Hints:
This protein is mostly helical. It has one domain (22-90). 33% of the residues lie in helices and 0% in strands. The protein contains two helices and no strands. The chain has helices at 22-31, 70-91. The longest helix has 22 residues, at 70-91. It is elongated, with a radius of gyration of 19 Å. The chain starts with 21 loop residues before the first helix and ends in a 5-residue tail after the last helix.
Amino acid sequence: xxxxxxxxxxxxxxxxxxxxxxxxxxxxxxxxxxxxxxxxxxxxxxxxxxxxxxxxxxxxxxxxxxxxxxxxxxxxxxxxxxxxxxxxxxxxxxxx
Length: 96
């Protein structure tokens, strides 16, 4: 094209590629969690359970699972926290 031009649009989205951070890769390796083919942490039960990993008792959230906006990061963080709380409550032995 080589020349300035104007185009009418409803929305323009600017985005850059995203790859897992070195910390995400290291934690995945240290904890023995399976990564997906892109190197992010693999969720094992999507689409209803998006935070469980290949290791029992370990959940992932936010951008460690892949590119995500702020709302998705917050909701997956809450889901992971609830899974962890439920896991710990099942481990609690009632006395009495």
